[in-house]
Design goal:
219 residues; Rossmann fold; 6 helices; 11% strand; binds iron/sulfur cluster
């Protein structure tokens, strides 16, 4: 069963390399119906804009780590009301108190386990992962069966660049995260995110005082 699913997704992934994101999302909605969710960091709203045009009631998951900037929470509300989103907001699981922001297990308690709970009953999830986001994501497939999550993971924006995101957001009049104009080009939790200066890598402000490049969701 899993082997069959894995093969189906591998074949899809190769074919999807040249398929518009809207069509990949439409396939995911048709293939998995209500057993599909979309997880979003709410740094921007491009994937949500695309997904709700395919399925206005698609379930969107926001991982509230308890450490987000107030501006991120404000942006979540802006997007929720703009689309009347079917939004699930997770909270850190019990035990998170023992793992302060930035520590090795922090993401496990504030993102990974809450998302695993939110995905109970789902067979697949859509992510906004982009290959340009980190060296660890350079060869990310469009769609694959993910053993560690025991689900199909769909990355319909894998081939997008930062410029593609900015262009889509501008052409479709999407609201911007309030911190974007203040130099925060990659936005995560407040304690581990700083603005970048001109000429720096857009992601230099994430986990700036550690070697960390992944939070655990996409390992
Ligand atoms: S991004 Fe940083 S602060 Fe946020 S959950 Fe992960 S380790 Fe914790």
């Amino acid at each position: 069963m899993v082997a069959q699913l894995r093969q189906e997704m591998d074949e899809r992934s190769a074919a999807f390399e040249s398929t518009p994101t809207e069509q990949i999302v439409a396939w995911a909605v048709e293939r998995f119906a209500s057993r599909l969710a979309l997880s979003c960091s709410f740094q921007e709203a491009v994937l949500i804009d695309i997904a709700v045009k395919v399925d206005p009631r698609i379930e969107v998951v926001f991982l509230d780590t308890g450490s987000h900037f107030p501006e991120t929470l404000e942006f979540v509300e802006t997007i929720r009301s703009r689309y009347d989103l079917n939004l699930t907001v997770t909270k850190p699981v019990v035990g998170a108190e023992g793992h302060p922001c930035g520590t090795a297990q922090c993401c496990e308690f504030r993102k990974v386990r809450p998302l695993k709970r939110a995905l109970v009953g789902k067979d697949a999830w859509l992510t906004g992962l982009k290959r340009v986001d980190a060296p660890t994501r350079r060869s990310a497939p469009i769609v694959a069966y993910d053993d560690s999550w025991a689900r199909v993971k769909i990355n319909p924006m894998a081939a997008w660049t930062d410029e593609d995101i900015a262009r889509y957001a501008s052409e479709h009049g999407l609201p911007q995260h309030p911190l974007l104009s203040k130099g925060y080009l990659s936005i995560g939790c407040a304690p581990t995110t700083r603005p970048v200066i001109e000429g720096e890598d857009p992601r230099a402000g994430r986990w700036f005082d550690s070697d960390k490049v992944e939070c655990g969701l996409h390992l």
